[in-house]
């Protein structure tokens, strides 16, 4: 059967599998027509089907895919070729080595990704990946760092050697970032730690608060006594950090709702009279309900500091929650996903808002409106909302803004006292800091 006929069959669901098997068996002669289909955005062959055939063909498809990435007329074509390239069934990693030195940044980036996928098997190529930390292309530099992260502990001494080399030139700074990313703070020697700490101190002097992306949970305490806060949460080994570093550390460990034990917590400077604490201190039984855990913590903290607030929000699924305690007693608890488990009947910070589970619209408010037409529905929604005076719906940031401090609204007008720290929880003392460099 001709290759042309096999390509026609590759486009048909009922003959696709058999045609793919025959094209793979043909090997090198099939690469060009399959690659042409992959790069043709109008091809009747599903791109993932042609890419999978090329992956299975393996070595004969390697150079043609490099060429396709380098010459791709559109991002989508480069993406398709890169996906096929990264999954080529080739056991000998040496075949990919030329891609690390290819003139095309697209090829260099995708080859670094291949090394990342191979993990410790790619350790022989660490010297070249380290050189790529100074690549002129941003994406290539980032891919090289991610690849080094996956090469295992033996990459750490190689990066240290670069740090100590007098001839490494412009590689020395990115090697420091890669060293912290691949091995964590423990991988830095005293000289590098001193350098980082000095830079943090310098950056702290003029840092302006910036809005934080909220996705997880945090506490708010009306105090500036940082030592007392650290003691209350059982935190140790506090390391001064910029606000940017603290926010990034929280973002690395947490994404979503619930109670996830942190290795470290970010204790902020005092913002407008409130110290915020990001992360979860752990120490509670895994079977304990989130509500019971939060209530217990807020009661303990408010008995010590006079008041304690806890807030939670998820940018992915609409979850939001808050807990407000005063003088050792919870006066308000609300969870949008567990509205029957509320404590208290409301709080002054909620006044004038609808709670997330409440619907302020009459049943017939959107009769006759095509809900599939988002523009028309939105227009009708705003019209009815204005006519009936339906309040806005509140979430954790709105409650925090009224009751304490909204981290997503930090800015030049926020009063800042002191500096923030990253400190280890019991889990962190046992397992160490998470890997990953933080922006200063």
From TrEMBL:
Protein name: HEAT repeat domain-containing protein
Entry-linked InterPro entries: ARM-like, ARM-type_fold
Protein's organism: Actinomadura montaniterrae
């Amino acid at each position: 059967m001709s290759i042309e006929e096999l390509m026609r069959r590759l486009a048909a669901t009922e003959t696709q599998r058999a045609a793919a098997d025959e094209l793979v068996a043909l090997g090198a002669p099939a690469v060009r027509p399959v690659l042409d289909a992959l790069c043709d955005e109008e091809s009747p062959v599903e791109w993932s089907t042609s890419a999978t055939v090329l992956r299975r063909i393996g070595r004969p498809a390697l150079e043609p895919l490099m060429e396709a990435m380098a010459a791709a007329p559109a991002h989508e074509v480069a993406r398709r070729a890169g996906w096929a390239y990264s999954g080529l069934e080739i056991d000998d990693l040496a075949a990919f080595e030329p891609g690390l030195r290819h003139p095309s940044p697209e090829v260099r980036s995708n080859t670094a990704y291949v090394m990342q996928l191979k993990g410790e098997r790619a350790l022989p190529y660490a010297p070249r990946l380290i050189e790529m930390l100074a690549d002129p292309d941003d994406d290539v530099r980032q891919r090289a760092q991610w690849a080094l992260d996956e090469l295992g502990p033996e990459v750490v001494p190689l990066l240290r050697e670069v740090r100590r080399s007098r001839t490494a030139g412009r590689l020395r700074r990115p090697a420091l970032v890669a060293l912290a990313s691949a091995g964590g703070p423990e991988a830095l020697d005293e000289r590098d730690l001193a350098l980082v700490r000095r830079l943090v101190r310098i950056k702290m002097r003029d840092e302006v608060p910036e809005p934080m992306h909220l996705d997880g949970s945090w506490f708010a305490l009306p105090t500036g006594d940082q030592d007392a806060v650290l003691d209350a949460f059982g935190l140790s080994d506090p390391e001064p950090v910029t606000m940017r570093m603290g926010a990034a550390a929280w973002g690395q460990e947490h994404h979503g709702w619930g109670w996830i034990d942190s290795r470290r917590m970010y204790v902020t400077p005092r913002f407008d009279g409130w110290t915020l604490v990001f992360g979860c201190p752990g120490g509670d039984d895994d079977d304990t309900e989130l509500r019971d855990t939060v209530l217990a913590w807020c009661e303990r903290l408010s008995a010590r500091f006079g008041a304690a607030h806890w807030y939670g929000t998820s940018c992915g699924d609409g979850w939001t929650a808050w807990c407000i305690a005063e003088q050792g007693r919870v006066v308000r608890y609300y969870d949008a996903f567990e509205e029957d488990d509320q404590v208290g009947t409301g709080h002054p910070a909620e006044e004038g808002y609808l709670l997330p589970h409440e619907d302020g619209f009459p049943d017939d408010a959107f009769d006759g409106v095509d809900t599939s037409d988002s523009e028309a529905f939105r227009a009708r929604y705003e019209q009815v909302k204005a006519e009936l005076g339906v309040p806005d719906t509140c979430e954790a940031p709105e409650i925090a803004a009224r009751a304490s401090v909204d981290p997503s609204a930090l800015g030049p007008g926020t009063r800042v006292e002191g500096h923030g720290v990253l400190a280890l929880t019991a889990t962190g003392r046992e397992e160490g800091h998470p890997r990953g460099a933080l922006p200063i």
